[in-house]
Amino acid sequence: MASRRGSQKSRGDGNKYSVLLPTYNERENLPLIVWLLVKYFSESGYDYEIIVIDDGSPDGTLEVAQQLQQIYGEDKILLRPRKSKLGLGTAYIHGIKHATGNFVFIMDADLSHHPKFIPEFIEKQRQGGYDVVAGTRYRGDGGVYGWDLRRKLISRGANFVTQVLLRPGASDLTGSFRLYKKEVLESLVSCCVSKGYVFQMEMIVRARQLKYTIGEVPITFVDRVYGESKLGGNEIVSFLKGLLTLFATT
Ligand code: GDD
Ligand code: MN
């Protein structure tokens, strides 16, 4: 075991990648996303850890995560649960505190973000030395699959309005499949005020303001098969509020 790990490390790039996986009722999805993450990281030889931030999911996601920890090891799967559903933005903030990597991936746990893109994010980062590499559905081969018209309009609309108001210079502002230098993520998080879904958008807008460099990787976003989206009318209203706050204050 020790020698296998040793050789894996020597194939890596000297960096460690912490993956933050926020979960709320992802019992069906978690085993597959973790298996795919382990597969793509192991194949490419990069050093990594997966941090599961479960918010007291009533479906028993945490118990599933504990089993996965048994299978893959406590150094690879870290559990940092919270008692109740406190929102996506604060889940990341909580997760970062426990990350030991010098790079941090943020992605959804419902298989909408495929781990097969991870090596491309890492390549892109290395090529340009970027502070942030953002997955984009709105450039190159990127795209969205499985969303109904309503969801597509919301996403396009949110991107469009934000592009016009804030000119952030990135093509996908609400997407949440991203790679950050750890210290960059920490500094962005410390100046972000939003807590829910609007968090992603604020992060990229602030990144641009703080003159961080942003690279983009086209990704396909596939709607979840298991479980439900937590994005509801409330989230849309708070997104608009957050957007206006940013517009007024930046
Ligand atoms: N810990 C925790 N707490 N996790 C949460 C919470 C929460 O309050 N709410 C959602 N999650 C987790 C879900 O379990 C999933 O892994 C991920 O966060 C995304 O949640 P979904 O409910 O699947 O989001 P979505 O598919 O509607 O929205 C996606 O697309 C949006 C627009 O492109 C996400 O990627 C959003 O971040 C993105 O803005
Ligand atoms: Mn989803």
Automatic annotation (TrEMBL):
**UniProt-annotated location(s):** Endoplasmic reticulum
Pathway annotation: Protein modification; protein glycosylation
- State the Gene Ontology terms under molecular function: dolichyl-phosphate beta-D-mannosyltransferase activity; metal ion binding
State its Enzyme Commission number(s). 2.4.1.83
Q: Which InterPro entries match?
A: DPM1-like, Glyco_trans_2-like, Nucleotide-diphossugar_trans
Catalytic reaction equation(s): a di-trans,poly-cis-dolichyl phosphate + GDP-alpha-D-mannose = a di-trans,poly-cis-dolichyl beta-D-mannosyl phosphate + GDP
Which keywords appear in this protein's UniProt record, sorted alphabetically? Endoplasmic reticulum, Glycosyltransferase, Magnesium, Manganese, Metal-binding, Transferase
Return the protein name: Dolichol-phosphate mannosyltransferase subunit 1
Question: Which organism is this protein's natural source?
Answer: Osmerus mordax (Rainbow smelt)
The uppermost taxa in this organism's lineage are:
Eukaryota, Metazoa, Chordata, Craniata, Vertebrata
Which gene name belongs to this protein?
Answer: DPM1
